[in-house]
Amino acid sequence: MANSELVVTAATAAEVVADEQGGGLRRTGRFALIARRFARRRSAVAGLVLLALLILFAVFGPMIGQWRFDEPDFLALAQAPSAEHWFGTTTGGSDVFALVARGLGRSLLIGILSSVAITFVAALIGTTIAFFEGWVERVGMWILDMLLVIPSFLLIAMITRSASGTGGWLTLTLALTAFGWIGYARVLRTLTLSLRELDYVHAARYMGVRSFTIIRRHLVPNLGSVLIIQTVLGVVGAVNSETALSFLGLGVKAPDTSLGTILQAGQSVVLTSPWVLIAPSVFLVALTYSMQLIGDGLRDAIDPYSRSGGKA
Amino acid sequence: MVRFLARRVLNYVVMLFLATSLTYFLASFFMDPRSNYLARNPRPPMASINASLTAANINDQTPLLERYWTWLTNIVLHWNWGLSPTQEPVAGAIATRIGASVQLVTLATVLGIVIGVGLGVHTAIRQYQWQDRVFGGISTFFLVVPTAVLALFVVIGAIYLNKALGFRLFYVTGLHSYDGNNWLLKLSDLGQHLILPTIVLTVITAVTYHLTQRTYLLDTMNADYVRTARAKGLPLNVAIRKHALRTSLIPTTVMVAFSIAGVFTGAVITETMFAINGLGKYFITTLVQNDINGSVAIAAFGGACTLVGALAADVAVSWLDPRVRIS
Questions:
Q1: Record's Gene Ontology CC terms (chain B) (predicted)?
Q2: Taking Cα atoms as reference points, which of A105, A103, A7, A100 lies closest to residue A47?
Q3: Which ipTM value was assigned to this complex?
Q4: For A32-49, how does the pLDDT look when each residue is reduced to its tens digit (9 = 90+)?
């Protein structure tokens, strides 16, 4: 508990340092308050610890395992978990422990990268559309609605299928970003509508501050809490999309692997070697659930009206 | 009202046209139907490959704009959505799959909405009490469990149950296996096939509606007009039922309307798991076969569903929301 609290405050401190225009006592106070409220929620801290463990496993798992993920043991096909193969082997003789460690890393990487990229693109376009009002806003909204008409899952699948080899995960990340920001930009535009009427935004406008500077300095930071929460929760969505696509054989493909790819391999041997299925499932649910717990905790910690965490 | 709707419909038709065209170009760019033939052994002669590709209007040696024009005029003039690389008409293939999808998703969608919204209202009224915490925890868990994992564990459970019972209570693949004429047996057969995918789809739908409906109702419960009603002496339950619930249902209605497309294309994983030949599974087939015309037709159908949903949302919101005045 004390340890994880330390992690939170360290992360917050880094955030404060990174925030160039911050400085001063008030800002630090705000973040310390959020950190304290976050740390008070047991479920949120549990999520953070779980995520830390998963990241450690993804980083160091491939090193402590006795097998590499692309090095099948042909003397042990479809073996139950044992001292030699900790999580058992697949019908092709691949070590499930090595596969899961590698796949977890891939899923984490795809999920976090695309979620951050989606938030960035959506924040930029959403606020820009709202800021310029008039015909920019009307045309922009029309284009957003038009892009929303096509089910994005179809387009992402279409694009990632053409990718192959170990670079496939990057294509998948790009495709998830390319079609994932649209609905989110729409939401952020709505939130910006009230921000653009703030007095200091008007003031900045009449003082001749460049539009892009106003967007970057005044609009995006004001959405900060929403953006942080959505980035964390967006990881869940991105990981789920990645898993679904890989499970269907349209995302990450052999020789590379991800949790969805392992699930697909396990699907056909549900009854004969269930461990191929259970290991990646457990890790996948642990990953998404930890992200959800952290996101919920953050939402409660940031929300000034929250009544769930006791007094500030 | 009629003029408002007519303008909306016109706007939506233009949107659908542009979005479908965009998909056509993307699909033509990313899909390579020629590779279907090149991978064969023995490889067919080039002339015959080209002839097959040209017959389906997917030959990459024809300029893209020319292919697009042929494709477009065929749809507009003859409602002909083109051929798959195996020279099968796309429109007919989709029509049969829509039927299977409808059978699969109708019950699950209705159940999911009713259970989800009901739970949302139930837990919002009891915010931070044990019911809210328990149901909230369960829903959060199921919200993040990937569909593939959920479906796989439902299948494992059903198989063990079948074994324990000694006879086949649940079928884990397909929609029908009974061929006779007895409607009672037919119905029970359909039920045995449908129950597992329905459970999976209902859980996925319900948890989303539960958590969002809870948030919406909590937002409106703290609104000024509800507080005013309470201050004037209206009991909490009546205030919620008469004032808060109605407004909180507006965003949910919009969500339901926009989920119509997802109903057809979103069951991809479930259909694959339970080997049901619906639209989702057909979509995977078109992708794997580099079937440009087929996948564009599915995207267009999904888009059309979305727009019908959007139109329904416009009408429903104007009926639910006293602040919206059209015409």
A1: plasma membrane
A2: A7
A3: 0.82
A4: 878 888 888 888 899 999
